[in-house]
Amino acid sequence: MRSAGVAAWVVGVLSIRTLSAGEHLITPAGENTEGQTRYELVLRQTLLRYAPDVPYARMMVLPSFSPEWMIDLHEPVGGKSAVRLVMADSEVWPLCRPRSVTTQTAQLKPRTAALVHSLWNSMVSAARPPSIDDYGLDGTSYRFFVSTPMTGSLAAEVWSPPGLSNAGRLAALGESLRLFVLASDAERPAIEEYIVQRASELQHEIPP
Questions:
Q1: pTM of the entire structure?
Q2: Torsion sign across C-alpha atoms 102, 108, 111, 112
Q3: Pairing of strands 81-88, 101-108
Q4: What does the pLDDT look like over 24-34, one tens digit per residue?
Q5: Residue 1, domain member (yes or no)
Q6: Whole-number Å distance between alpha carbons of 51 and 63
Q7: What is the pLDDT of residues 138-164, one digit of tens each?
Q8: Cis peptide before 94 (omega within 30 of 0)
Q9: Is 102 contained in some domain?
Q10: Is 41 inside a domain boundary?
């Protein structure tokens, strides 16, 4: 990212999968096998070891064929809002063993963080119950977490959302936050401006 420049991250954001599943965020279905339960435990041990117990706004990404990662946006403090990227150094699945991680942090403007948090809350709180059509075998699962004093902690997820769906656009914003952290200091202002623009557009378009 540091060498490719801003143009590369635009291509990456626009390349979100366009599969038919995952049109909407759904409430978490839970783990129904011993293997899934083990995976969830080890996933939390790997990505959430130093994360806040109550997420301000968080996205976990679980690809089928590459390491899992998480973007964790912290509540603004002292005029800054930390956005933390945690990347497993190798896949947790299928061996289900704790992995080492690489962590990087950058600072967003508080108003950007507040906008992202508001959007996360609007979409996660409107998540639907899951159905069999919401999942597939290979692809990428996106999990969203948010908390407010009024609602407490909420969670929702989506599998390989179409890029132009609201769920896909939300996932793309999470991907943009990842790219923001990985970018150079010179590139970050343009990426933050892009995040603000896309978050504002989606916030205005979703049903009240």
A1: 0.86
A2: negative
A3: antiparallel
A4: 999 987 655 66
A5: no
A6: 20
A7: 789 999 999 999 889 999 999 999 999
A8: yes
A9: yes
A10: yes
